[in-house]
Amino acid sequence: MAEKHPFEPFRIKSIENIKLTTQAEREVALEEANFNIFKIRAEDVMVDLLTDSGTGAMSSEQWASLMRGDESYAGSRSFDRLAKVVDGIFGFNHFIPTHQGRASEGILMSLLVKPGDIIPNNTHFDTTAAHVLAREGIPENLLMDFSKDPDFDHPFKGNIDLDTLRHVLEKKSDSIPFCMITVTNNAGGGQPVSLANLQGLRELCDEFSKPLFIDACRFAENAYLIKQREKGCSKMSVREIAHKMFSLADGATFSAKKDAIVNIGGLLLMNDKQLYENARNELIMHEGFPTYGGLAGRDLDAMATGLIEGTDDDYLSYRTSQVAWLFDSLKDIGVPVFGPPGGHAVYIDAGSFLDHIPQSEFPAQSLAVELYLEGGVRTVEIGSVMLSFISPDTGELVTPPLELIRLAIPRRTYTESHLQHVVDSFKAVVERKESLKGLKITKQPSLLRHFTCDFDWVENAEIKENVEAASSLLS
Ligand code: F0G
C-alpha cells in the first residue's frame, strides 16, 4: 500500500452531508439514468470525482472575501484587489475577468483565429478545440509519442513535441496566428510541462514570430510538479516557478474553477495592448464591464484569495500527494493507472483492465458504471463515448487510442478516508472484473453525446435513435 499519507493542511469548519445509498438504490438510479452517469443526481453520488472544476471547497478566508466583495458596477475595490494579486502571480501587462475558462477562450479565438488557421497545442482541451473549430480553424495536438503510452515513465509527459512543431511552423507558418500550451495537460493524463520545454517553445515561437498563449487552468499544480521533478527547481517557490512560466508567454487563458479554488470565474491575460483593447470590447458585449467581467464583485474577491491559497507550496504538496496516494493505492491492487501521477486526477486504462470488452462496447463506460454501482463513486469516461467522431474527410469512425476513465479530485473536498472508499470500491471491482459486460448506445444526440446519450447492456440493447453518427466534439 502507498506509504505516504497526505496530511490535509486545514481543518474542517463547515460540512456538507453525504447521503449513504445501498447498492439496490444505486441500481435503480443507474437504470433511471440509462447508464449515463452524467444523468445521475449528485445527491445519489457518495464520492464525486466527475471533475475538479468548480467543485473545490472554499476556505474561511474566501467566504470572508465574499462578504467583503464590492459590487460597484465600475472601479470596484474587489477588482483592484484581484488586479494586484493577478499581477503578482502572472505578471502580464493586461487582463480581463471572465465568467470561466471557455469565455476567455471564446474571446481570444474570436479575435485571432480565421478560417483555415492552425492552432498548435500539446493537447487542446475540448472547449478550446471547440472554439478553434467554431472559427473554422484547426486545433493541432502535438504531444510527444511516448506520452500516449500509459506505462512509459517520464516526469513531463505534458511536453509539446518541439520537432514536429518546427516542421509544422516551417511548412505552414502563414496559417498559424499563435501557439498554445496547456498546463497541466488535462486531455493527456493531467501531465505537467517542464520549464525546459516551455523555454524551447518560446525560442521556436520567437524564431517564427508567433505569440505564445498558455492554457493556465492548472498552472500552480504544474509549477509544483516542476519544483518536484525538474533539475535546479527544488529550491524555488511555486510562485517563482509560475512567474518564470508566464514570463515565457505572451498571454494566457485561465479557468479560476481549478487552481484558484473558486466555484466560478476566469481570466484572459495578455501583454499586447491592442489585443487587450479588442478583448475588452468583446468582454463588454458578452460578459460585462471590464472591472467585473462575467462575475460579481464578491467572486473577484474570492478568486484573489483563492489565487494566493492555490499557489501555496504546503497546500500544493498536500494536493499532489493526495493524487499520488490514490494513484499508488490503485496501482498496488492491480489497477492499470496512467503514470506517473499528474496534478489533479488519476486516469485508468480501462481498455487494458477490461480487455475482454471490445472498444466498440465501451469498456471505460462499463468500468465507470460498475464503480458507481459498487461504491457510489462517480468518475468520467474519456474514451470512445466522449472522443470518437466521424471523419469529415473519409466518413469513417475515428476512435481514440485509449479507453480511459478519469478520477478528478476536487480541491480540499475529500479526505483520505473518502479516497480509501474509492480504493475499496475498486478492490471489489478488480475481483469480479471478468464478469463486467459491454454497453451499447441506444439513443444519442448529434453532438456532445457523452452528456446525454442512453446506454444498455449489449445483450439487452434495443437501438432507439441515431446511434451511427458519433459525436464530433465534447463539452
Ligand atoms: N482548459 C482546460 C485544460 C480545462 O481542463 C478546462 C475545463 C477548460 C479549459 C475550460 O474551463 O470549464 O472554466 O470553461 N475543464 C473541466 C474539466 C471542465 O472537467 O476538466 P471552464
Task: Produce the secondary structure layout.
Elements: H1 23-32, E1 47-48, H2 60-68, H3 77-89, E2 94-98, H4 101-112, E3 118-121, H5 126-134, E4 138-141, H6 162-172, E5 179-182, H7 195-207, E6 212-215, H8 219-229, H9 238-247, E7 251-255, E8 266-270, H10 273-286, H11 297-310, H12 313-332, E9 345-349, H13 350-353, H14 363-375, E10 377-378, E11 380-382, H15 384-387, E12 389-390, E13 397-398, E14 404-408, H16 416-431, E15 439-443, H17 449-452, E16 454-457
Parallel strand pairs: 1-10, 3-4, 5-6, 6-7
Antiparallel strand pairs: 2-8, 7-8, 9-14, 11-14, 12-13, 15-16
Helix pairs in contact: 1-14, 2-11, 3-11, 4-5, 8-9, 8-12, 12-16, 14-16
This protein binds ligand F0G.
Ligand F0G binds at residues 51, 53, 100-102, 125, 127-128, 182, 186, 215, 217, 255, 257, 266.
Features:
binds ligand F0G, alpha/beta, 16 strands, 2 domains, Aspartate Aminotransferase, domain 1, five-stranded mixed β-sheet, 475 residues, 13% strand, 39% helix, single chain, three-stranded antiparallel β-sheet, Aspartate Aminotransferase, domain 2
